[in-house]
Design goal:
By secondary structure, the chain is of the alpha/beta class. It has one domain (6-300): Rossmann fold. The chain has helices at residues 6-13, 82-85, 95-101, 122-131, 136-153, 169-180, 196-202, 217-220, 223-228, 248-264, 285-300; strands at 21-30, 35-43, 49-55, 63-69, 105-109, 157-167, 186-190, 235-240, 271-276. The chain has a nine-stranded mixed sheet, with helices on both faces. The longest helix has 18 residues, at 136-153. It starts with 5 loop residues before the first helix and ends with a helix. 49% of the residues are buried.
């Protein structure tokens, strides 16, 4: 099996970098110690995507930024509201206000079919895209690249300090986008890292939604190979071994591979792993502390 490269990964997923991305401010709200912006971003003639952005109230100089990828959780009603309101699988407080208070500009796109974009089922959307030779996963990643565009264009963002962060579906988005887009300086992902080949063998792959289907991936590599493409950039992996989506054998197989990639790149210090032996599909307090420390070290301080 040949090593998985970025071009092959992009072709398999049907991922394409956006072009001429524009952002329109719909409204903004000043809270006690942060600002919330409601945006619509688009590329070409594509559908405008609703976006929530949080920032410090005095963001008049370039700041570090986070592209926050929301989760799935079979809650298509939540979407980007997760940034401000959180969700049961996340520790408190929600990341949007917290990261703004820590000095980050944070942007969250509403994926289809979630939130205001939940006008059709995930199954219907996945099938339609497959008939057109695309995947829902690739379409999501292509839209997320518009988020990197928008952050890079802002005067209050340091374009060299943009990280990705997410849990579950959002975690998978976080490290896949980092693998595909070199503009991402670091990736933190929680509760969704395991060998997909091992999950297929056990049947646990069926716990994932239809969105996470990339035809032919296992002929070229696995999730560990995708995470390898992030190296030597900093990467944080958080997992609970009682999580049905990250059972220990499947996690260890993927994790051993990515550790070897960072070792080969001379960047072992840039790979951080938080393993919770008695936790399931949720962010723990230890994971939250690790995320904040990771972002402070590798994004705010740039190592």
């Amino acid at each position: 099996m040949a090593a998985l490269d970025t071009d092959t990964l992009a072709a398999l997923a049907g991922y394409a970098r956006s072009a001429d991305t524009t952002a329109t401010l719909v409204g903004s709200q000043r809270c006690e110690d942060y600002v919330v912006e409601d945006l619509r971003i688009a590329s070409g003639d594509a559908e405008a995507v609703p976006v929530t952005l949080t920032r410090p109230p005095d963001a008049d100089t370039p700041r570090p930024a986070v592209l926050y990828c929301h989760a799935h959780g079979k809650r298509h009603d939540i979407g980007r509201k997760e940034l401000l309101d959180g969700r049961p699988a996340l520790a408190a407080p929600p990341y949007g206000p917290l990261l703004a208070q820590c000095g980050y500009v944070t942007l969250c796109l509403e994926m289809a079919p979630f939130g205001a974009r939940a006008t059709t089922s995930e199954e219907s959307l996945s099938k339609a895209l497959l008939w057109h030779g695309r995947t829902l996963f690739g379409a999501m990643l292509s839209e997320l690249s518009m988020g990197v565009d928008v952050l890079s264009q802002r005067a209050d963002v340091d374009a060299g300090r943009i990280a990705t962060l997410g849990l579950s579906m959002g975690g998978t988005h976080a490290y896949w986008l980092a693998a595909l887009d070199p503009r991402v300086c670091a990736a933190a992902h929680l509760c969704c890292f395991a060998s997909l080949g091992a999950l297929v063998e056990s049947g646990a792959h069926d716990l994932h939604g239809p969105y996470m289907t990339v035809p032919g991936l296992l002929r070229h590599g696995d999730m560990g190979d995708v995470a390898d493409l992030v190296a030597p950039r900093p990467q944080l992996i958080g997992v609970g071994l009682e999580d049905a989506l990250s059972p220990e054998p499947a996690f260890v197989a993927a994790h051993d591979q990515v550790r070897a990639a960072y070792r080969a790149a001379g960047a072992e210090d840039r790979l951080t792993t938080v393993i919770e032996t008695a936790s399931g599909h949720q962010e723990t307090d230890a994971m939250r502390r690790a995320v904040l420390s990771f972002l402070y070290q590798w994004v705010a301080g740039m190592g």
